[in-house]
Design brief:
Number of domains of chain C: 2
Oligomer: heterotrimer
Shape of chain B: elongated
Helix content of chain B: 25-40%
Number of strands of chain C: 14
Chains: A alpha/beta (about 325), B alpha+beta (about 425), C alpha/beta (about 325)
Helix content of chain C: 25-40%
Radius of gyration of chain B: 45 Å
Strand order of the largest sheet of chain B: 9-18-17-16-12-15
Strand content of chain C: 15-25%
Strand content of chain B: 15-25%
Number of domains of chain B: 4
Strand order of the largest sheet of chain C: 3-2-4-5-7-6-12
Order of helices and strands of chain C: EHEHEHEHEHEHEEEEHEEHEHEHH
CATH architecture of the largest domain in chain B: 2-Layer Sandwich
CATH class of the largest domain in chain C: Alpha Beta
Distance between the termini of chain C: 42 Å
Structural class of chain C: alpha/beta
Number of strands of chain B: 18
Chain lengths: ~325, ~425, ~325
């Protein structure tokens, strides 16, 4: 493994934070403390962390409705995320966005959109902006297998291709678009193959292998920075939880869910770190505990934060 | 000790049924392991444990329906004791606010017990009351709301200038009162005011304000008389004709009748009523009303008789006077006058007159010009009977009892000549009273 | 003063602004060599190059999405959607993304983008190339909607729109492109949300938008011969719109006609009418509020039918007389 130990520790820590963050918000929801729904990415942590780890800090990401992981991977402040989650004034979006719209534009997190595929055309624009401003940045655009069937996907990938924009289209294929199995939704085996028709590379990656994701995305990033244009990377993964809080999991079997839980990306990464003598069990335990603590503190922070004022309800509609 | 709660699993989930516990009390449970099955919205969902430990106590039995976030079990360490106070709170069967409870208590008169049935009854009754109140209100507003078509600007201006919109006719589309109409009224008012001011200016040099004894508000009968008379005086162009009638024959006739009955039952008024009714038969144009540019002549001849009462004047009616005998007229007249003085007249006694007779003879008034009682078009004033020297056919002076009659008529409906002919005819009857029988 | 056309005024605003700020670029279908379907951007590609006058494939959704992505990362895009009818293809990006982004991100995004698009009938292009859909966009918080009626306003309002940090729907009118008017050569801004009294009058207020302002002016000349003095008020911006000027005008005249080309049902006139009756100007109304709008039909092809589908000068004259004479 070529990556520095610190980098690997950071990646593991982020994966834990994602897992614990989502377990915690799931629990808060069950207590009736969360207003609205949420889309959990438990089981998909390797995609978010692997992909974003291949970026520089001033690169951009665009996220989706299932975006907590992307946010944390991009280095978001968990306190501000949790506060947003609970609709507090101190949250990233002053309680106006919630789970589905966490953004931190200054840090390059251009936000999550609740409309499937809504971010794809925007990413093309970000790519164009980067190219016109000649900053050498890239934009990593997350979307799911469901979004790959939208017109927006086609229009945007084509534009990015003809203008050779520095965009990495990252398809998180978690096998279901809500309840629609990707096998029923798409007639070809790999979404990545669609890149061929736009004239840029498309690759399939094991989305539960954080290092594999990292490697593939890094290649795409390099290509983008050189001005060679966009790439499409399809990460095959699986969400353990339902689509959202209204999901009763009627469309997939317990066996299927169980089999994917055995492929836990965190356990897999942990095993590898130990087997390659990069980290010791105790060190990993420390990382894990530290991640848990961060989440607990975030809950305290959020709970102690003020509600947004109704007097300021109009703030933010216009500049 | 961790609480296991009925989890909220969907945005709209409020309750869930514990379908099956997948672990029993005493079992070890790992975080993420399936703990129980919950049925919500007819779908069974497996619930994973959020905690690791031993399932110490199950509070919700299988089949029970539990609101979300209610504690359904406890998970703890193997040797941890379950606190005694762990008893699931009973869920109130119906949520009733404190104030409502108080009300019910008062209403029902029971000490602390609140029966759901009574609450429901009380609620229903309250609803009925509210509905009744609403209906009443609606009725009131229906009555109140007379539609006046006016533009918002006209309404605003009218309010500012204290103009009563119901007294203005609009010239806008559909008769809507518009700004121009209000301005017209304002202009008219200004003119009137200027006139008034001119008069005031002239007299203001030696202006004397009389001392007020008493102010009587114009109300009730007085107000009605005031309105009706000013309407009549301002709207109806009156002609008034006077005629003197020698009633020596009538005097004899009356005496004869009195003798026949053996009491002084008849008044001259009775003869005049009958004679007037017969005259109206001859000149029906005076037994009429003017309405919407049409003269409506009545078949019925209903003579109204002005009677003075304590606070004004009232006009009871002798219907079909032309067809009644003198005796019947007298009976009716006596009846009505008594009822009027006793304030016992009914609506039917005072409505439907087509012509009015007013008599001030008993006060020795000889002549006066009466004001028509609208919507009629004629009125007969009867003055005092006085002995007067007259020049008879033989050019000799004779002393005769004379009655003075004054007839006012609506000049829009008829002319002086008709009035004169009517009076002549009336005189002829009174001078040959046999005709009255 | 120098007279130029509405299309030239828009082009001049684009040129001057692009010279002033290199972050401004144009994006749209056939806006380069072709000069746009109505020639508005003609020649700009020679001056600014393909990078800044960027032809796109036929991808309306991506045009708007690309503009949005560029806007939030420091550029100031001006997109052209060839016909207003085609904004339907980009609705997701306009309504769900561009309009909402700032608010749902807690006010922390800056979205300096303009979508220019021509609306209106009168060209015989029938139902799918003639719509006036401005009311749709006024219904979406986060968007601003601008609708100039003269060359002077077109230039000043476009410059203000380009310099504004919000997503703006800038609605041009195909029949206005060729009308001329006095336009200063230098750059100037007309603040968004400020109405303009195009003609002062005493007897009645006509609130008109876009092409209808021109028709109202023609109607007012006829009406003047009969001694009727109408005030013509152009809101110029529909969102935000200038309620104060409308209220003041009605307080003066007491009568109002609202004219727009868009279908009358749920048209912007309904908003203005409702606002009037909710405002203090209600008490100054001396006649019912009158609306003139397009018929509730798709724009027909036949010349005569097309003319009948939307208000014409005679309609404005007749409606005015009805209100004046009762």
């Amino acid at each position: 493994m070529k990556l520095a130990r610190e980098k690997l520790m950071d990646m593991l820590s982020k994966m834990y934070k994602i897992r614990f963050f989502e377990e915690k918000v799931d629990y808060l929801f069950s207590l009736g403390l969360v207003h609205g729904t949420m889309h959990l990415s438990i089981g998909q942590e390797a995609v978010a962390v692997g992909a974003v780890s291949a970026l520089k800090s001033d690169d951009y990401i665009l996220s989706t409705h299932r975006g907590h992981g992307h946010c944390i991977a991009k280095g978001a402040d968990i306190n501000l995320m949790m506060a947003e989650f609970l609709g507090k004034e101190t949250g990233y979006c002053r309680g106006r966005g919630g789970s589905m719209h966490i953004a931190d534009i200054e840090s390059g997190n251009l936000g999550a959109t609740g409309v499937v595929g809504g971010g794809i055309p925007i990413s093309t624009g970000v790519g164009l902006s980067i190219k016109m401003r000649k900053t050498g940045q890239v934009i990593l655009c997350f979307f799911g297998d469901g979004a790959a069937n939208l017109g927006a996907f086609h229009e945007s990938l084509n534009l990015a291709a003809i203008w050779k924009l520095p965009v990495i289209f990252l398809c998180e294929n978690n096998m279901y678009g809500m309840s629609m199995s990707v096998k029923k939704a798409i007639a070809i085996k790999d979404i990545a193959k669609r890149a061929d028709s736009y004239g840029f590379p498309g690759k399939v990656v094991d989305g539960n292998d954080v290092l594999a994701v990292y490697e593939f995305v890094l290649k795409a990033v390099k290509r983008a920075r050189k001005g060679e244009g966009p790439s499409l990377i399809e990460c095959k993964t699986y969400r353990w939880k339902g689509h959202s809080k209204s999901d009763q999991n009627l469309y997939r079997s317990k066996e299927e869910i169980r089999s994917w839980k055995k492929k836990c990306p965190i356990k897999r990464f942990k095993k590898r770190l130990i087997s390659e003598n990069i980290l010791k069990e105790e060190e990993i335990k420390m990382i894990e505990n530290e991640a848990k603590e961060v989440i607990e503190k975030a809950v305290d922070f959020a709970n102690n934060s003020p509600e947004p004022s109704v007097d300021e309800i109009f703030e933010g509609v216009y500049s | 000790m961790y609480k296991v709660i009925m989890p909220k699993l969907g945005m709209t989930m409020e309750k869930g049924i514990v379908e099956r516990w997948l672990k029993k009390e005493g079992d070890y449970v790992r975080k993420g392991e399936s703990l129980l099955e919950i049925m919500t919205d007819k779908v069974t969902i497996e619930v994973e444990s959020y905690h690791t430990g031993y399932l110490k106590k199950i509070l919700a039995e299988e089949g029970e329906e539990i609101p979300v976030t209610e504690v359904i079990a406890y998970i703890g360490e193997e040797d941890e004791k379950i606190p005694e106070e762990i008893v699931r709170k009973k869920i109130a069967p119906l949520e009733v606010s404190k104030e409502e409870k108080e009300k019910v208590k008062v209403k029902v008169g029971e000490k602390e017990k609140i029966s759901i049935k009574k609450i429901i009854e009380y609620e229903k009754e309250r609803e009925r009351e509210i509905r009744k109140g609403k209906e009443k209100e609606e009725e009131i507003t229906k009555v109140k709301r007379k539609k006046i078509l006016a533009s918002p600007l006209a309404k605003k201006l009218a309010k500012e200038m204290s103009i009563d919109l119901s007294k203005i006719s609009g010239t806008g589309p559909k008769g809507r009162i518009v700004k121009a109409d209000i301005l017209r009224v304002v202009e008219e008012r200004k003119l009137k005011k200027e006139e008034k001011m001119d008069i005031e200016k002239e007299s203001s040099k030696e202006l004397i304000t009389p001392e007020i004894l008493k102010t009587i508000p114009l109300t009730g009968l007085r107000k009605t008389i005031s309105e009706r008379m000013s309407k009549s005086a301002s709207e109806i162009p009156h002609i008034t004709l006077f005629l003197e009638v020698d009633i020596s024959n009538l005097e004899k006739f009356k005496n004869k009748l009195d003798k026949e009955i053996g009491e002084k039952k008849f008044s001259y008024t009775d003869f005049i009523i009958k004679a007037t009714a017969l005259s109206l038969e001859k000149y029906p144009i005076l037994n009429s009303t003017l309405k919407d540019e049409k003269i409506i002549i009545f078949k019925d001849i209903n003579i109204g008789l002005a009677v003075s009462i304590e606070d004004g004047l009232i006009v009871p009616v002798i219907s079909n006077s032309n067809r009644l005998s003198l005796e019947e007229i007298a009976d009716r007249r006596i009846d009505l006058v008594n009822l009027a003085r006793e304030n016992k007249l009914k609506l039917k006694d005072v409505t439907g007159s087509t012509f009015t007779i007013t008599n001030l003879g008993m006060y020795q008034v000889e002549y006066f010009s009466p004001i028509i009682n609208p919507p009629e078009s004629g009125i007969l004033a009867v003055g005092a009977i006085t002995k007067k020297p007259i020049v008879n056919k033989d050019a000799k002076i004779a002393i005769k009892p004379i009655i003075k009659l004054g007839l006012a008529l609506d000049h829009r409906v008829s002319d002086g000549v008709i009035g004169a002919k009517f009076l002549q005819y009336l005189r002829d009857i009174l001078q040959a009273p046999d005709k009255l029988i | 003063m120098r007279k130029i056309t509405y299309a030239e005024a828009i082009r001049e605003a684009l040129r001057q602004e692009m010279k002033r700020d290199e972050n401004i670029f144009l994006i749209g279908e056939d806006i380069g060599i072709y000069g746009g379907a109505f020639g508005v951007t003609y020649g700009l590609i020679n001056e600014f190059g393909e990078e800044r006058v960027r032809d796109t494939p036929i991808s309306e959704l991506a045009i708007v999405g690309t503009s949005l992505g560029a806007a939030i990362t420091g550029m100031r895009p001006i997109a052209e959607i060839m016909f207003m009818d085609f904004t339907t293809l980009a609705m997701e990006q306009i309504v769900n993304q561009a309009a909402k982004m700032k608010y749902m991100f807690g006010g922390k995004a800056k979205i300096p983008m303009v979508i220019r698009t021509p609306a209106g009938s009168g060209t015989g292009a029938a139902a799918q190339h003639s719509q006036s859909l401005e009311a749709w966009f006024t219904h979406v918080p986060g968007l601003k909607v601008v609708m100039p009626s003269t060359p002077y306003d077109a230039k000043g309002l476009l410059i203000s729109s380009i310099r504004d940090d919000n997503p703006i729907i800038f609605i041009e009118h195909k029949l206005l492109y060729k009308i001329s008017g006095e336009v200063p050569e230098e750059e100037y801004e007309i603040p968004l949300g400020v109405a303009d009294i195009k003609r002062e009058g005493e007897d009645l207020t006509i609130i008109a938008t876009s092409i209808m302002v021109q028709r109202a002016i023609s109607a007012s000349k006829e009406l003047k011969k009969e001694g009727i003095s109408v005030e013509i008020l152009d809101p110029r911006t529909l969102k935000p719109y200038d309620k104060k000027t409308i209220i003041e005008s009605i307080k003066k005249t007491g009568k109002v006609i609202i004219v727009h080309e868009a279908c009358k049902t749920s048209g912007f006139g309904a908003e203005i009418a409702a606002m009037i009756s909710e405002s203090e100007s209600f008490d100054y109304l001396d006649a019912p509020i009158r609306r003139l709008g397009g018929l509730d039909i798709p724009i027909p092809y036949n010349r005569n039918l097309e003319k009948h589908a939307v208000p014409q000068i005679e309609d404005i004259i007749n409606a005015t007389k009805e209100l004046i004479y009762g």
